[in-house]
Amino acid sequence: MQIQAIDERTFYRGVLVLLALTGFVGTAASVLHYLEPAPELMDLVIPPSVAVTNLVLAIWLICRPKNILRIVYSAFGVGVAALSLPAWYYSLRAHQAPDILLIDIFPPISSFLIIFIVVVMVMLPPRRAFPIMIVAWLLNAVPILSYLLIHKEELWTPRGQEIFMSYGLAILLLLVLLPFQHRARRQLERLQHDNSHMHNLAERDALTQQYNRWGGQQLLDEFMRSGTAGSIIMLDIDHFKLINDTYGHLVGDRVLQQFAMRVSGALRSDGHLIRWGGEEFLVLIRGIAERDAYTVAERLRIAINSDLFPPIGKLTASGGAASRRDNDSLESLIARADKALYQAKLNGRDQIACD
Questions:
Q1: Are residues 74 and 128 in the same domain?
Q2: Alpha carbon 309 to chain centroid distance?
Q3: CA distances from residue 98 to 40, 53, 104, 160, 350 in whole angstroms, order as listed
Q4: How far is 339 from 320, CA to CA, in rounded Å?
Q5: Which has the closest alpha carbon to 213: 285, 273, 258, 254?
Q6: Cis peptide before 108 (omega within 30 of 0)
Q7: Are 231 and 288 in contact (CB under 8 A)?
């Protein structure tokens, strides 16, 4: 439910799609070159190498998603090598053989360099993107532009002008736009932070900093849609009205804060605490078996009354536990937990009942 987690998933999927697309393009280019009557050796080596390498990187990403940044930089390294090797190879070949023209033998890959630099700009922050963009541009532009400037008869042909514009002015324009991309990225991050903050305010209880009823409802709905096993525990502070009447509402608020801290501290990573209303709290525990629900609820009850609550002294709570069944709706599950809580109160409070 957090914005950051969503962004990470989006970035992961974007990298996976990028690897898949470049692998597909490399495979398609390999097939086309193999069907040519007299393909160049460079054309027979680089496209299949790119396809295989990106397939390996995609498998690595699926198996080790935590290595995503290392995989991204590896993919960019492969892209720089795949684009710059043909630039040097064909430029040197045309330079050494007077009867060969660069504009005739150079493959139509200039657009791939522009696409590569745009992808780098989008996926990386500017301070990391800029060095990669500069290295990629220099390794590709230096041999091509140097050759064309020396062989002006090729430069002034339509093909020569197209190559010169692609490797020269178009790339320089992208480099000039990088600071503006940096500002846009910072503005987007600020908006995401504000959105995350507003989302957090909407789903969190201001007093206890736990899920409020609205946020807890979203959490419970997601749990019910998942179809996984789990339990809920309704907790109610015993005689809380007496605390408010005796010590005042400010002390009552501090008790609620301490209560929430003690319960959340006793929960593991699979547990979520929700302030359901007033002094009533709901605990959602994912993946727990029905036979273990009482054990967890009892552990929470002991954590509550194991230490004093200044200034009122000892505090107790009653609880009702219910585990999800195949025919349960969210309403029926909560109703069973509430029924168990009512039974625990009838039995004398400071205890756990299960339904």
A1: yes
A2: 40
A3: 18, 35, 13, 16, 95
A4: 7
A5: 273
A6: no
A7: yes
Shared domain for 193 and 226, answered yes or no, is no
**20 and 85 together in one domain:** yes
Strand partners, 67: none
Residues 313 and 246: their CA atoms lie apart, in Å, by 13
d(Cα 175, Cα 189) in Å, to the nearest integer? Answer: 21
Structural domain of residue 244, as residue ranges?
A: 213-354
What does the block give as tokens for 90?
Answer: 């064909």
What is the β-pairing status of strands 317-323 and 352-354? parallel
Judging by beta carbons within 10 Å of its beta carbon (0-12, 13-18, 19+), is residue 327 exposed, middle or buried?
exposed
Tens digits of residue pLDDT in 237-283: 999 999 999 999 999 999 999 999 999 988 888 889 999 988 999 99
CA distances, 353 to each of 139, 229, 290 (Å): 72, 19, 13
What CATH number did the domain enclosing 276 receive?
3.30.70.270
Other beta carbons within 10 angstroms of residue 208's beta carbon come to 21
Q: Read off the pLDDT band of 9 (50, 70, 90).
A: confident
Q: Tens digit of pLDDT for each residue in 78-94?
A: 999 999 999 999 999 89
Active-site hit among 189, 203, 222, 279 = 279
Judge whether 279 counts as a catalytic residue: yes
Return d(Cα 31, Cα 48) in angstroms, integer: 9
For the record, the structure tokens of 45 come out as 């080596």
C-alpha torsion 21→27→29→34, nearest 10: 180
Residue 79 in tokens: 């892209």
Using pLDDT thresholds of 50, 70 and 90, give the confidence band for residue 196.
low
Tell me, what's the pLDDT at 231? Answer: 93
225 with 314, same domain: the answer is yes
